[in-house]
Records
---
Amino acid sequence: MKGIFTTAFAVLLCFSIYAQSPRTLTVQKCLEIAMENNLDIKRANLDLTSNEINLKQSQYSRLPNANLNWSYGFNWGRSIDPTSNQFISQRITSSGLNGNSNMVVYNGLRQFNTVKQNRVNIEASESDLSRAQNDLIINIANLFLGVILNEELLANAQYQLDNSRTQLDRTRILVESGALPITNQLELASQVASNEVALVNAQNNLDISMLNLKQAMLIPTSDEIELEIPEFQQIENPDLSMSSETAYGVAEQVMPEIKSADLLVESAQLGVKVAQGGIVPTVSVGGGFSTNYSDARDQRFVSDGTFSVSDNPTSAVTASGEAIFPLNPGGTFEKVGYTEQFDDNLSWNLGVGISIPIFNGLNTHSSIQRAKVQLQQAEIGSLQARNVLRQQVETIYTNAVAASKTYTASLRQVEALEETFRSIENQYNLGAANFTDYQVASNNLFQAKSDLVRAKYDFVFKKKVLDLYQGKPLSFE
């Protein structure tokens, strides 16, 4: 029993440790989580589903409709027997069954154009979904790189603090031996304190950037995650041989917002045709059947071919004045059942109808005018989408070029300041340089390295966004 409890405790401990260990997420995994949880994506998917339902409905509307009706009821007092159309004064139990079907043969191609319009609307919804996905990709990529940036800045701040502490320990020994004045130790202690503040600020920036990424993925902030830093390829300048005008031309062909805007124009054009179909006569064919049952006709007399003389004379007499006695046919009464009455009373109908619109309060005219206004709005929306895309591409292209120049300049600056710092650090250790020169060189190198990290990730992000606008998939490998 003791061994069983020990094993169970060990298993639970392993599960607890596993549950508390942070998940390691790549940028692709972050995108998958965000795609699954994002509300805009879900809303776009629902819009697409709604348009698919509209398409099916418009397709099925071209089929004949069919309706079947059944009734059952009671009548008291003077009423009409539904089977004989005669007045009777008794309670009647009656039942009826009828069915009808109708199909539109021609109505100005309204049904045909509605189906086409709904197909176009589905394509537009698919493009809207792609646009929402692209927006989410850009946002997640930016936040992901922001976390990585702040991790590198934190590592840089930690390195700067460790270097200052090492220098402080070395200086403290020299001060204790009398080789350096106490002011050098105090100045380095102040530098260490400043670096500690910088480290705290870097950690805060990292925490905030991680919080922003979790919120964008819609996962609990209590979830512990770690990001897998991608191995970036050789950072190269963007293709400067491609002008911003060429970049816009490619983006115009591949970006979903342009396709969506053009499809909305096509949908609005079909909407005008649908509305214009309202002024055309509608031709339809239809048919149906009806039958009924009544308990007032629940018996039927069946003659056996014999007759008997009645005992009661009629009011008429012969020429000689003799009474006339009527003949009563011989036979029996038989019950007329439910099914037999339905068969006897069954009737069918078939017909063709033409509906010619003459005047309906200008509803059709107003519908056509509204459809034309919607077409004009869609055309303006298409033009606006192109203008917005042009501005976005021009801005992204210019920013990518500027970011590449900034990265190149920052790289050269760090290389130069590293040489300067090594030289001044050696001179300071030998007593040939004062603390002010050392501190200035150290701070300049720290700031330059921070600027280089920012420039690198700024360029990577803007280059990836430019690639996305050229129809290339997002990849950091």
---
Amino acid sequence: MLYHSSHMPANQSTRLDSNISSIDFIYEKSTHEALAQACNLFVKHTPSTTELWAASRDWFMEEWGRDTFISLSGLLLTTKRYEEARQVFRHFAKLEQNGLIPNVIKDDAIEYNTSDASLWFIHATKQYMRSSRDTDFVKELMPTIKNIIDGYKNGIVYERNDRPQNIYMDRNDGLIVTPAQSTWMDADPAGDGSTIITPRNGKCIEINGLWYEALVFYDEVRQGLSSDDDQEVSEIISLLKESFLKKFWNAQAGYLNDVIDGDPKGSQLRPNQVIALGYAGDLIPLEFSIKAMHAIRTKLLTPGGLRTLSRDDPDYIGSYDTYKPMSEKDPAYHQGSAWPWLIGPYCDALVPIRTAQGVSRADIKKEVAQIIAPLVKFCLDSEFKSIPELFSGNPPYEPGGTTSQAWSVSEILRIMEIWC
């Protein structure tokens, strides 16, 4: 996410407690109510619809497509606010263009410059159906979902910095190719494409994990609703099963590469693979998932979320200072800073592994509670009663960025409601 702000957030006096002696507070009703109330900060109502704002303070106080559909499950589905969820889906579905869901809606300006918002839209639709069992509404969304699938499959062009940007499927392996600065790791201090910190051009791990999930969901729902068969979609699913692991697995390092066929630093250990591990189903065999999660747990996991880069990497920056100029702080934005929202897909990836390893449900719930406890306590103790955008990757894990970020709070509530 990019921002240019002339104001700074209030100083965050709350500090992350990384040595919590008891997690009993996680299970208290008042804790769940407090997190649910924190989520309400981002749900806004207009005369015509419901909006989910990316933040409630400082900046990002508008709709961002990616943030909306990552946050929707925690903000609305955990509390069964299905009518509001339907309003959000319909609002964005009307704005879909050539398979793209808007990146940002701000001051009546709509920007289409993201390669993952559309895939998160489908992911959230899947979560909605799982939670509500409302197949009629999912059927209503199917034309939009089909437009997304067709757009990614056949190619989409959008403009950024006065240059055409291309999203398309490589017919040789079924993987999606995306341009630089089109994923959530999009920091560019200059704001004109000349100083992109993490380009990630090529085939990104989370884009393709979400792509596989989208194809499988679309295929299953379409057949369930109409009993028809799209042979091409089935063929792409089969092709992905053959190519994904061969292309992304880094046998020497023991984890999934972040980007292939593009960004020359695509083999760096980054957390985006947890999205593929958590949501791509049978695409990654258990033995590989176990190895990848070990690398993530030992190198990226912190009490404040997952680091965006391994602390062993020469590009790693362990401190993020919100009050420095963008030219100084942006290099750390996705080069080591820990992001709370990534704990959501991390836990989604962890639970199936623990289950397959024979760990009891009670022990799994305890492990999950211990992972989220520092962030839950931070929210309870914070003067803003929320969770910030990020924390520094190094102890003492100073909070940074916006002081109240939607996906930070919503993903913690979602995991807490499922497992605690």
---
Amino acid sequence: MVGPSDFRVMGARTLASALIPTLAVLGMLFAAPVWESGLTAQAGASGDALETIEVRPNIFAIVGAGGNVVVQVGPEGAILVNSGSAAMADKVLAAVKALTPKPIRYIINTADDADVAGGNAALSAAGVTLNRAAFNVGATGATILAREEILLRMSGGTAFGAEAWPTETFTARQRSMYLNGDGIQIMHMPAAHTDGDSIVMFRRADVIVAGDIVDLRRFPVIDLERGGSIQGEINALNRLIDLTIPPMPFVWHEDRTMLVPGRGHVADQADLVEYRDMVTIVRDTIQDLIGKGMTIEQVKAANPTAGYRTRYGSDAGTWTTDKFVEAVYTGLKGSKGGS
């Protein structure tokens, strides 16, 4: 579970290194980022308590429910990006109710992982749709919105009941709407973590929810069976970099695009560039080893993640360093026809 210490904004650290060391006052500002003073935590003493982080005055991140859940609040109600795991749905609902008395209106799924969309059914049932005739005629709960690929996978498997399926889907490159005084754009990022990944941008607030494309605790999960690819992942990261604005020219200000990853701390463009560079370097290293005719075992022995393994790697859990290397290797071999 992501703990409070994982959620410190790290972008300022990178930016501060570029400043003149003798500017001690500015160094102090970067040690305690300006925007961090606006963060609010709501967490109990239990090991499965959630933490609520204020990213912008009406945008909050709920941490500890599996994947990060983002909530936009306003006069129209609560707009959720992802719903966390099924086991944590009641706690997420309580955290949302602590933020606003208004009902949940939308749940936007960026992917269909169990710890991202597992709370769909419970949170949708607790909400109220804005338009009962828009897509799912007669629906009363909060609308669940996602790419069509997510609905097709959810409805074709056994992990999710029908009440958790998206009630509204889109197939275009992006879906846009205007709620709570902010333009919301859901943008498809094809063949990254999966073939159905989306990011969500709150334009006025200047906050982007990156979903599982960015996981600052580990190497990105490339799910080949669900249409993911290392090149799609890099393309998505480059697109995110294009969409984010750094704190320039006043690097000591808090003004910048804030990025909420699928897991890990709130970030900015500096963190994103570092993560993209890491993924690209590993991809290029493995590609070079493939070019030398190495087998997957030889590639693993060559340690292509050297330099990054301590920070992002793991030898246990559902997504190990070996699995990441295997996914990159298999994907690159397949893109060249395999051998």
---
Amino acid sequence: MSSEKPFILALDLGGTNFRVALASREGHILRRATAPTNAIDGRERVMRRINQCLREVASAEIDGVGAISLGVAGPIDQNGVILSPPNLPGWDNTPLRSLWEEEFRVPVYVGNDCNLAALGEYRFGAGRGRDNIVYIAIGTGIGGGVIIDGRLFTGSGGLATELGHMTIDP
């Protein structure tokens, strides 16, 4: 991210709600908003509402936004494509990174919401100063993120800590 662009827009896209925040590069949240996802409305309508919310939260600072961080429930590939989100019907194989880069003309970093939450706790929250943490989220779904020796553990295919997507046959 360019040093002349001091702000980051963060988006947490969940099956029930989405959350948007404008933050400084140091992690200080300046503004935030939450709204229902209403995934049943379809991908295009949901994305329009999210884009409007991103612009409203950034408002006067929109020209100072140097990147967008997008966390989403479900498996994400290395190209920022959501493969099969359990709580977003009709979003299979959606190229999230490229869609939001095209819309906002800034770099977009896409990751599993729990992996990004684990990184956030490691850097700014309860995990600060620790080398190893496990983050578990229980909400609309179940997810987790793991930091080992100060690095996010994702496994060879990037899906190692998809705790809520394990199939168990009793």
